[in-house]
User: Fold NAD kinase from Staphylococcus intermedius NCTC 11048.
Amino acid sequence: MRYVILSKGDPKSEALKHKMMCHMQDFNMIEDAENPEIVISVGGDGTLLQAFHHYSHMLSRCAFVGIHTGHLGFYADWLPHEVEKLIIAINKAEFQVIEYPLLEVIVRYNDEGYETRYLALNEATMKTENGSTLVVDIDIRGQHFERFRGDGLCVSTPSGSTAYNKALGGALIHPSLEAIQLTEIASINNRVFRTVGSPLVLPKHHTCHVKPVDHGTILSTVDHISVKHKNVNAVQYRVANEKVRFARFRPFPFWKRVHDSFISSGESL
Ligand code: NAP
Assistant:
C-alpha cells in the first residue's frame, strides 16, 4: 500500500505524523508522495482541503482519510488515539470507499478561447477585489434568472454546505445528493433592486453562469485559495464529473457528524 501523510505543521500534528510513519514501516507500507493510494491528512478540515488540492489531478486513483488534532471535523473525523486502529484497518482488507460530489468552476475571459478550470471540495465564492458592490447577471440553464447586487455569491458542494455556506444561512445538504447550492452574501434588496433571497439548490444537469456587469475584475475563492481574475466574461458553476473518494473504515453518518459538530458531542443521535 502506497501512502502519504500531510500534516498541518504544528507540533502536535507533526508528532502524530512521525508516530504514524513508524507504524506504517512495521506494516511494510511505502511512502509515495507522487503516486499514493491513500492520502492521510493530520490537522483539521483545512488540512484536508489542502491535501485535496495537492492531489486533485489524481482523484480516481487515491482515497483520503482525515485525522483531527484539534476539534472534530467533517473530513477529519479520526482521533489521534485511534491511529493504531486506523493503520491496522488500512492493512486488513479492501476498505470501503465513499464518494462525494465536487463543484466545477470554469472562469471564461473576454479573450476568446481562454479559460481556467477549478475543482472545489467545499465551495467557490465571487466578490469584487476592493469590497465594492458586486453586480452580476445570473443565468440558470441558459435562462436569465436575476441581476444580483451585493457583497458576493457562494456556490458550495454538499460536503461544503457545513462550512461557509452554513454561515450564510444555506441549507445543510447530504453528500449523497449530487447538487450544488448558490447562496447570496449580503444582497441589496429594496424597491429598486431585487434578488430571490433564498439559497438555490441545483441538480447535476443544471449549469449556472454568473456574468459581471460593470467590469470584468473579480476576486474568486476556491476553498482556501483566492485568485483575482481580470477581463472575466462569465464564470460557470456545475456539479463536476469527478468525485472525491474517502476511505471508510467505520460508519460515521453525515447527520451524526452534523449533530456532534454543531449540537453536542456528548449525546448520540
Ligand atoms: P480557516 O479560516 O482557517 O478555517 C475555516 C473553518 O472552517 C475552520 O474551522 C475549518 O475547520 C472549517 N471547515 C473547513 N471545511 C469545513 C467543512 N466542510 N465543514 C465544516 N467546517 C469546515 O480556513 P481554511 O482552514 O483554509 O478553510 C477554508 C474554508 O474556510 C473555506 O472553504 C470556507 O468554507 C471556510 N470559511 C468559512 C467562513 C465562515 O464560516 N464565515 C468564512 C470564510 C471561509 P478546521 O478547523 O477543522 O480546519
Remarks:
- The first strand starts at residue 2 and ends at 7.
